Amino acid sequence: MRGARRLHPEDNVGKPRRVEARRGAAEPEGPPPSGVAPSSLRPRAAEIHAQLARAIPAPRIELDFRTPWELLVATILAAQSTDRKINLVTPALFQSYPTPAALGAAPQDEVERLVHETGFFRNKARAIREASRTIAEQFGGEVPRTLDALITLPGVARKTANVVLANAYRIAEGIAVDRHTARVARRLGLTEEEDPAAVEVDLCRSFPTNEWIDVGLRLQLHGRYVCTARAPDCRHCPLNELCPSKRAAPEGTLDARAALEASRIAAQGEPKADPPG
Known about the structure:
The protein is built from 12 helices and 2 strands; from the N terminus they run βααααααααβαααα. The chain has a two-stranded antiparallel sheet. The chain has helices at residues 41-55, 68-77, 83-96, 100-104, 108-115, 121-138, 147-150, 158-169, 179-187, 196-206, 212-225, 254-267; strands spanning 19-20, 171-172. The chain has a domain at 68-142: Orthogonal Bundle (Endonuclease III, domain 1), CATH 1.10.340. By secondary structure, the chain is an all-alpha fold. Its cofactor is [4Fe-4S] cluster. Keywords: 4Fe-4S, DNA damage, DNA repair, DNA-binding, Endonuclease, Glycosidase, Hydrolase, Iron, Iron-sulfur, Lyase, Metal-binding, Nuclease. Residues 1-40 are annotated as: Disordered. It comes from Polyangium fumosum. Residues 77-225 form the HhH-GPD domain.
């Protein structure tokens, strides 16, 4: 939005507390990273999340992975690409180099060949090799379970770290904010910020800590398949009645709109590429 206050990037943003996320758990004691949302915002945020949950009852990341390390590599590769494309590339990569030590020792040119279709392949190949080598040499081959440790890895910024913690370990230290998440949050009036780290702080203020993982996934999927950048489908959006930015009146019942969104996500239409981070 116009006039949005831009904060310094990730390293100066207050870090949310680390908690093990449990479905249905009570909100942990203590405030989110920078206080709590205004009293008028939290009930509305809860209503937004409840409506999204009707359309996306069991949110899951669309990157394929079997281990935390595979998710880390896939997430690094997904910058400026799509999950669908990454899912086509990673099987051959992991077949050739099945462990962090193996990928860390792989020739740069061979890794570049395997990840060429993801775009920015030289930088990505270098990042996943160096991150894998660091995991093998400094972390015993295990992907770290804290944000502070993860962001020491080459190619890993706060968003990537949050993705890995949330989806590999069900640990919430924050909310992974990509461009879809940020766009939906701004349109819903949950933030006025442009910087992803500042958007994350506002979202963490608005939702209970035990909901951060599912909130992040639901906002992202909603932005990919319904609240798109150029042509948001406001008429069929299950959040229409709650959205201050809607461009059209709703059509059909809430249940019908929620079912339509669920079908789009299940079909996994090709989403737009995400920026790095």
